[in-house]
Amino acid sequence: MSRYNLRSSNKQIGAEVSNILPIPSASAAAVSQIPGRILRSTAKSFSLPRPINENDSPPIPPKQAQDEPSSAKRPKRVKKLDSEASPIEDNPSEDKPSDTPVVVATPLDEEDSSSKSELEKGTKGHAFPVDFEKLMKRVKRKQAKATSIEEVLVLSPLAHFYKVVATKKRVKASLEAARTVGRGESFARKLRAHASHFEKHGHLLPFPPRKKDPPKGLLSKKGVKPAIERWLGKLPAGKVTPRRLVKFVNKKVLTRFKVHKTTITKRTAERWLHSFGYQSRRHKKNIYWDGHERADVVLDRERYLNEIQEVQRLSKDWIEVDGKTVEVIPQLIDGEKEHVILYHDECTRYANEPKDRYWLKDKEQVRRKKGQGIPMTVSDFITGSTPSGRLVMNEEQISEQAQGPVTERLPPNSRKLVFPTGKAGGSPHWNNEQLISQVKETLRLGEYLMPGIILVFVFDNSAAHQCRANDALHLNNLNIYPGGTAQIMHNTTIPYDNPYGNAGLPQSMQFPAGAGTRHGIELRGGQPKGIAVILEERGFVQWVSPRKVVKTEGGEKIVGECEKCKKAKARKPVDLDGDSDDDDDWDEDDDNEDDDNEDDDNEDDDDEDDDNGHNGLPAVDANSNNNSDEPSCCLRKMLASQADFLNEKSLLYQTIVSAGHKCLFLPKFHPELNPIEYYWAWVKHTYQDRSDGRNFANSKKILTESLDACPGDVIRRYLRRANRYASAYRAGADGPLAEYAAKKFKSHRCITKTDLSLAAAEKEARKKNGKSTY
């Protein structure tokens, strides 16, 4: 077969190749624009017919013809392409004379060898330049529909490959695409193989099956995982650490299950904690989910939602209409009064409080002061019933107050700002006494600004807000028998459900003068009676001896305080490091259970917690009726079940209600229902952005300005956010779902059951796809 030398100009090559390409519209001018390396590679792939006679052969240069030996071997032919992949039609019959010039290949230089190798590995079967733009679009369409992580990892660089391959060699283009995803030459070779397969068949090469997960080791041993989970479940939040897990496993788990290991490392403990669902993260304020959905907390939440819904019906509101704030007057019926809801909370900022973020150049560093400085505690109220969102006087009202007597002047706003130092002569830390004083001033201020309205105070459920008066009815202030030191309590009325005919009778908690003696004990006037005598006067028991009390019905002896109530008052400390010798962390069947049932052994873990809560929750009040299932197990529990002791209100509540207004308490662990929490966040960012820590006077001024700077419409947005959470709970959402729905439907004033269903479906889909749901 004759061969033709391709060492000519592009125009000449284009003219010659256009004669052999079976494309009617091909022309030498068009083909001349194709790079020479592609034409040479293309020509090398064709097998053309041999001429019938020597006259049809191209002339051989004389010198080459003379020097060529007769026995010289012919150059090896380039392998013919498959009929499917080759764009060249079948060769004409050798019997028919051919007028087509025959292409002859000369020896290849280094560039030609690279092109040949590239052709065989990546472009085999392509006689013409490929439409890489269409291929890139096809790759992107497949990338959008990818179902496996392997496809995603290949299709993204493959799209970049087709973006640059039109102007670069395939090897260089594949290397560039591989570097976009941080890979090297090995990945580039695989990428070219995928590209070649994609160009021929329209899909990627099949991926090898994934390797099976390695065995879990010690955790796969029967009983080990449930035992560790039970121990971790007993630790309070924040007390779980790899060091404690190492100590517990080395001391208890390894010795009990007799494994070949003698110790585990801290790194192993960290991996185990990840497998149990723990993560190491920075502390930040958030909702306390552990107690958020506890049964008694959910009941308290329903109570609050019903109360606040009724109050909101009687309250003024401000809404945005066409970019303007419009006042909405409540529709009242006969006998109803307008209500104004005041949300309360405290916040503490510091004089030298550092910022969370700075804008710095490279190698710049901010020098912070060592201490945070003097604390500045703010106690304030916000409301949606005033244009400013706060309870404040205007300039005219302030001038009017300045003209009155000093002792009768009212504060210009409801805010209270203290600066506790902890030093002698300094201001005390914020306490219940200061809160009561602030509430009394706020009551006077509210009645002055809005006469004839009902103020509704909303407080969180902190222990400080539940402080009772010094003479309140409380079991902690009583002894079992007369005598000893005890707190003086106010008189009461025997509850109307008394079954012994004493309902409605007045009862004193102290002995009257001249009470005499009983069982050899002197009953002095003004001395507390004790639980036994109080119950005897109500008809429940009989005090028969100095240290013996029997029930009226049946004559059964009853103790002053049973063991269960004692344990409820004194919570058992948690064994943080596994040093105790008890076997509470083990089950009898731990050594015999099957691996398939390991995850089912912890369904009732919450039932193992004692009666005063779980996961670090506060203990149940000794004055409540929840310490024991039996209300008559002991004298202390019997008196705690009486209605007058159960319904004893806090001093804060009594102060507000006695003034003719209302007081509500938020359920525990529900800060999202208190809109002032969002107001504090706004104040914090504003204060930190402006504070320079120069001196205390300047910090105090900046804090006051930050508190006044929050616009009223921003405060009303915070109120609407809290209402969205409340509507989600009314629709049946739990805490996490309510949070997700409140963020998703930010433009809604309330969340309906339909919105909740959509949010639940989307949240579940994001969870399955491994995306964040917060």
TrEMBL record:
Biased composition (Basic and acidic residues): 113-123
Acidic residues composition bias: residue spans: 576-611
Region feature (Disordered): 42-124, 200-220, 570-629
A GO MF term: nucleic acid binding
Classification via Gene3D superfamilies: Ribonuclease H-like superfamily/Ribonuclease H
Name listed for the protein in its UniProt record: Tc1-like transposase DDE domain-containing protein
Record lineage: Eukaryota, Fungi, Dikarya, Basidiomycota, Agaricomycotina
